[in-house]
Predict the 3D structure of the following.
Amino acid sequence: MGYMLEIENVYKTFNIGTINEKVALNGVELKLSERDFVTIIGGNGAGKSTTLNAIAGVWPVDKGRIIVNGTDITRLPEHKRANYLGRVFQDPMIGTAATMSIEENMAIAARRGEHRGFRWGISKKEREEYKSRLKVLGLGLEERLKSKVGLLSGGQRQAITLLMAALKKPKLLLLDEHTAALDPKTAAKVLEISDKIIAENGLTAMMVTHNMKDAIAHGNRLIMMHEGRIIYDVSGEEKKKLSVADLLAKFEEASGGEFANDRMLLT
């Protein structure tokens, strides 16, 4: 069986030749099978978000290849990768247009990549589909299709962004600390919604998180990054049995030092 994602020997250094030179990715190798849901942890500057940016094509990589579902996308510009990827960022304001209604936001996501003239009318059939998808969230938003998204809470906006990102069944869903800006209760709800959307659509997903408990509790596989490479990769039963203490020990063993990210320890 083919892989849904292959990252082959990827390197990225920022500000080459300057005093601020920073090796961000140092030979990253990763293969994801279809329906893998991988959580990614590591200290600040370990390369977690940089890996997601490399996949999304935010900037070109220096070396290596990125292959999604058999297609080499290494040289594709960011907008051309949008057909393969769904992405949710840390900031709930990024994924949605605040001045537009819930149904208009969903229509934009549903029609992305279609070349026919963009007609603004939303058909009854489309509206019914958005309603049934919103209902799954359990937030009552299906009754508020005409509400402006800017009036919603951060958690509600992230939930809608998740729905929109999954609407076209992307080959890969990228979640970049997408609950970090939310209060703990809302974050837990959004994670529960993420699990549901990933499972129901059979998506392959990667979730960067700074919360070790969440990294253990969600997904079927966990990878730890340090200094731009993957230092630990665990899945299945072994992953389920992990504790935060195990992860800390693993990190200290691999990095030869104390785990220095307070934010990670406090959550």
The chain has two domains: 1-84+171-267, 92-169. The first strand starts at residue 5 and ends at 14. Residues 184-200 form the longest helix (17 residues).
